[in-house]
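Quick start: read one record
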Amino acid sequence: MPTETFEFQVEARQLLQMMIHSIYSNKDVFLRELVSNASDALDKLRLEALRDGELDVDVSDLHIGLEVDREARTLTVRDNGIGMSREEVVQLIGTIANSGTAKFLRELKDAEGAGAAEGLIGQFGVGFYASFMVADEVTLLTRRAGETEGTRWTSSGEGTYTVETVADAPQGTAIVLRLKPEDAEDRLYDYTSPWKIKEIVKRYSDFITWPIKMAAEPEPRAEVPDAEPESESDAESESEPESEPEPRLETLNSMKALWARSRDEVSDADYHELYKHISHDWNDPLEIIRLHAEGTFEYQALLFIPAHAPQDLFMRDYKRGVQLYVKRVFIMDDCEALMPPYLRFVKGVVDAQDLSLNVSREILQQDRQIELMHRRLAKKVLSTVKNMMVARPEQYATFWREFGRVLKEGLLGDFENRDAILGVSSFASTHDKDAPTTLAQYVERMKDGQEHIFYVTGESRQAVENSPHMEAFQARGIEVLLLTDPVDEVWVDTAPEFGGKQFRSVAKGEVDLGTEEEKQEAGTEREKQREEFAGLLARMTELLSEQVKDVRLSSRLTVSPACVVSDANDVSPALENIYRAMGQEIPHAKRILELNPKHPLVVGLNRTHAERPDDPALEETTELVHQLALLAEGAELPDPSRFVKLVADRLERTL
């Protein structure tokens, strides 16, 4: 097939130009990315050879090779891994539609400073293109294992690339970078210098399980004093040039898997570099979790909790899961079966000893050993967060700020660990505007005689704090949890209790606060009020029969004239909307209108009803009171235009 020239897609061209012309404080990241890609190619070949016995490949000397040529100013990164076909080269290298390029470009443009920009390179799967930070031409030569022909890809990053078929390409991939001349004078960025290459490999790739080899610098030859030749044959032999010896290769990395070493053998810096390799995160992890399970089923795990939540954490196509190895042989990335969805932010490696090497994703879903690991890993992460909460509260505060919302998803499905999840959860509350509270702390502060953990749900802290449902609780100084995440509407209906105390919404059912003596006094007073307001309550219930199931007096209001509440076992309106948004139609539950018997508006309404029960103004006022109660909790009015007309007419009559 002849050489073909292609144009990069528009976004790819923009990306390449930014790579070429942007200034980065640390260009070394390009080699980390290329070595990482080479390691992945070796992993895939090893796995393919184990799965396919007919694949004719040599896996006896799998390695990554680095070659420098000072005179030509080239750096070559070579592997004898899985390689790529011509179609794969065009699809994966020529176009990068699947690499999140558009989002990467937006983030790159918005990044504050060079350091922030560097951290985006690996984050969006564009590590190969980091080569153009240091090279003015990149050539890729590759041949897929099992195929007879190879492919050469070449580009200067200026908008086009060429692809040609090569007959004698070795198996694997070789990337040749023609280094920019301006870097030659800067010792920090001289990538033809062996010491520089060694430094980068040691810093970023020492944990790679495949040997990274480079020609050792030749040792200086000892000088031999001149001597007279003993014979003509000796003189002739001395005149013949000596052949150059094959260069000695040295291995630059230790290759020992970090999860297999003892804690004393590995520094935090080593763990951090492994985390960055796995997650493509530029920041150090927040927490390192080690687990070594022995017995009938043996496995090792090295997990990391990131310091920051990725921006796509809540997107449908977010890749979750940890890397799965079997006896240090790479099996798959993003093994979802090992980690529950609510812990999808956890990164790391799990290395099992007894799984089959040809295990597939379908088999993983049904494998009992995988299920055991899944359960153990989830418990280990939660116990680590618990220890963090107790021993390192500042670190825990960072964790909860970044991942609290996703962790609470576990309350909806992981009933086995529900108590553990509740135990490590924090919530905003009326106790402290600046710091969230744990449920254990809430229970410790509960007033004498308080039987429930009270909460209120809503869209924002400001909205729920100003809700009329909160008035009696604020007046008595009773702490209320302020739940403003969408997931809170769902889990509070499924979690029955914590520490023996049931959760109870301040916007549901009837409220009975205070000591036993206070409750008895309040009960006596309410009986008198019910008799006094009985006629008004019956009339308003009749007038609002299409909107509410009942009108009653309230013990939760101290300032507002009215509020709407749900029955104790009814679904809240917000939860109804969530279910409908998910395509689940559920019956609409009528709510209850509660009146404050001490508010002048309600007192006046009762007097009007007693004196003029057929007064037309009573019907209008009843409608207005109900709609004012809906507005007070942020609900939508059934007929906003009618509400405006009623208010305007009423205001006009007061002038």
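The chain has a mean pLDDT of 84.
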